[in-house]
Write a structure and sequence with these properties.
Blueprint: E1 3-7, H1 16-31, E2 35-38, H2 44-55, E3 59-65, H3 66-70, E4 80-84, H4 87-97, E5 100-103, H5 108-122, E6 130-133, H6 140-151, E7 163-166, H7 169-176
Helix pairs in contact: 1-2
């Protein structure tokens, strides 16, 4: 996998552990000459991942919606920039450009992106997976919820067909290095 999409928080006001892990992933991506494809923000885990990747020689693709540009919140690290009108276009382009997608800790925007990928995979638009990078058990509640959807028959097939979970950096990089 050479083109890795990252979904994550744009908040700077989160636990340092999440920043450290985002930087670790970005550095690994740069060292292994992976493309980072992300939302293009200059804040939070987005910028931390991009900066670490860039410092280690990685290439950065930002998929930037108009509102982000209007707020002056676009990273200066981008090698390639795609401009989008809205978040729906952003999600579609990130999915199109990425070979696999990783969900670091994030808020409702990250959830929206994750569910976009999983929902479109369930009906056959693509066969790409999301990897939940479960730093400190961040995704446990959501993973339990997804299991509940299955047990209550709100999913027509196992949702785990459409995502993987990495509980450590080693697990994550093992999944990405295929």
């Amino acid at each position: 996998m050479n083109k890795i999409g990252i979904f994550c928080s744009a908040s700077d006001d989160i636990a340092p552990l999440f920043m450290e892990k985002a930087k670790e992933l970005g550095a690994w991506m740069g060292e292994h000459r992976k493309w980072l494809i992300y939302g293009g923000s200059n804040c939070g885990l987005m910028e931390a991942t991009a900066r670490a990747a860039k410092e280690k020689g990685g290439m950065i693709m930002g998929i930037v919606p108009t509102k982000l540009e209007e707020k002056g919140a676009v990273s200066e690290l981008l090698d390639v920039t795609f401009h989008t009108v809205n978040l729906s276009d952003r999600k579609d382009l990130m999915l199109q450009e990425s070979e696999i997608l990783v969900a670091l800790p994030g808020g409702v925007g990250t959830l929206d992106e994750v569910f976009h990928v999983i929902a479109s995979a369930t009906i056959g638009y693509h066969s790409k997976k999301v990897i939940f990078y479960n730093i400190g058990g961040f995704w446990n509640g959501l993973l339990d919820f997804l299991k509940g959807l299955e047990s209550q028959h709100f999913a027509h097939r196992p949702l785990s067909n459409f995502f993987q979970t990495a509980n450590s950096f080693e697990e994550l990089t093992g999944m990405l290095d295929k």
